[in-house]
Amino acid sequence: xxxxxxxxxxxxxxxxxxxxxxxxxxxxxxxxxxxxxxxxxxxxxxxxxxxxxxxxxxxxxxxxxxxxxxxxxxxxxxxxxxxxxxxxxxxxxxxxxxxxxxxxxxxxxxxxxxxxxxxxxxxxxxxxxxxxxxxxxxxxxxxxxxxxxxxxxxxxxxxxxxxxxxxxxxxxxxxxxxxxxxxxxxxxxxxxxxxxxxxxxxxxxxxxxxxxxxxxxxxxxxxxxxxxxxxxxxxxxxxxxxxxxxxxxxxxxxxxxxxxxxxxxxxxxxxxx
Length: 273
What we know:
- The protein is built from 9 helices and 14 strands.
- The relative contact order is 0.19.
- The strands form 2 sheets. The protein has an 8-stranded mixed β-sheet with strand order 5-4-3-2-1-12-13-14. The chain has a 6-stranded mixed β-sheet with strand order 8-7-6-9-11-10.
- Helices cover 30% and strands 23% of the residues.
- By secondary structure, it is α/β, with parallel strands linked by helices.
- The chain is globular, with a radius of gyration of 18 Å.
């Protein structure tokens, strides 16, 4: 580990970390080593912002376990959440008419899709339609029996899966036929999302950073999936995990160890200790 003289400038004033595949291990825990590294960096004066594709209801239990009291960017940038005050500071919703049109265009191109949706709000349900494969784990979801339920309340995003196309092929097809209506991103294995056009982790992170008086040039970002590309482009230094998607590795400034091997801590220990 390298150390800096007392009073020397911080290498980065803001540390932005993705959760799944980055700060979280496979079992959704955060091991002791990155906890210590983040605590040391924040004690030195840096700010830490969680930037996740998960909407607030799927993020709060992780923040509580970390005793996290700051700002979190959730829902691929749609929500800026104040964990200490337990309130939404900003929330962007998906235009349901445009989303329905986009969905029709995509299905006309690739055939029927399996669908899920994340409803807006601090307690918004994740609705899951027939055939949609929900990943194992503790995240709650509600079975959607009537397709009309999908459009009954404001949404952050839609999740789409295809019976045979892989994530990258489905996302590419969706962008080609509906990219002028909605944003499309791959957020994890089996997780292709349709978002408000122009929304990204970078837009949410820039809003949160502005509230802290911190600029992009002062930001260090960690991630593992294509939905982190925008965050890397916005930040001064992007660090991809060893387990990251090739698309993110291609634009990273640095590649660290995997999430299972405390890759976030490896970099923070070098920079802040």
